[in-house]
Write a structure and sequence with these properties.
By secondary structure, the protein is of the alpha/beta class. The protein has a single domain (2-226), classed as 3-Layer(aba) Sandwich (Rossmann fold), CATH 3.40.50.300. The protein has 7 helices and 10 strands. The strands form 2 sheets. It has a 6-stranded mixed sheet.
Length: 227
């Protein structure tokens, strides 16, 4: 599902990623951990095509993303990759279901199709009765679930999450963590999660440890089926 080969990335004189290679299989839930400044978010952004590496190659869902034009890369990102961030980033003027539908509209889907998919996701997450509520009428946990549903609306192959439970209390953290696995089991997505949360890292299928722009243990970088 994701194959990264010898990725490097620098910002000025600061080398953030130093030859990262890793493989993630379809349906895996993988965490990326490490101290602040290790390069975790930069790696996630490069996998998600939000940033480009200085060198190396990335294949996501069978596509060499480095070969895509700017327009095709934007289309690929919207239909193949979903993003969940620490803060929900919902648009305050839209309801929960409208926020979820926005990526589907960008992908050119019909309103009826987008609404049907958004309704399915809200129902799965136990938020069917919150569909017409705006973000200021939702709890923190509800907002983050809506953000996850938005990431899933185009049925992407990969979900990338950057500290997704960092702003939640312990109860909502546990519920969100379990949700990732429930979604994987129902919809088959691959999850790559940057986290400082030891409890989340402990329950993922595999943990990749990053330090100073490098993977500490090379064995972390390969799925068991690929070793």
């Amino acid at each position: 599902m994701i194959d990264v080969q010898n990725i490097t990335k620098s910002f000025g004189s600061l080398q953030v990623l130093k030859g990262i290679s890793l493989h993630i299989d379809k349906g895996e839930v993988v965490s990326i951990v490490g101290p602040s400044g290790a390069g975790k978010t930069t790696l996630l952004q490069i996998i998600g095509t939000l940033d480009k590496p200085d060198s190396g190659s990335i294949v996501v869902d069978g596509v060499d993303v480095g070969s895509l034009s700017t327009n095709k890369l934007s289309d690929f990102r919207n239909t193949h990759v979903g993003f969940v961030f620490q803060f929900h980033q919902l648009l305050p003027e839209f309801t929960a279901i409208e926020n979820i539908m926005i990526p589907a509209f960008i992908a050119g889907k019909k309103t009826s199709e987008a609404r049907e998919r958004a309704t399915e996701l809200l129902d799965f997450m136990g938020l069917a009765d919150r569909a017409n509520h705006k973000p200021n009428e939702l709890s923190g946990g509800e907002k983050q679930r809506v953000a996850v549903a938005r990431a899933l609306v185009n049925n992407p192959a990969v979900i990338l999450a950057d500290e997704p439970s960092g702003s939640l209390d312990s109860k909502n953290k546990a519920e969100l963590h379990q949700l990732f696995f429930d979604l994987r089991d129902k919809f088959g997505q691959t999850f790559v999660i940057v986290t400082h949360d030891e409890n989340l890292a402990a329950i993922t299928d595999r943990t990749i440890h990053l330090k100073d722009g490098q993977i500490i243990d090379p064995q972390d970088a390969a799925a068991e089926t690929s070793v």
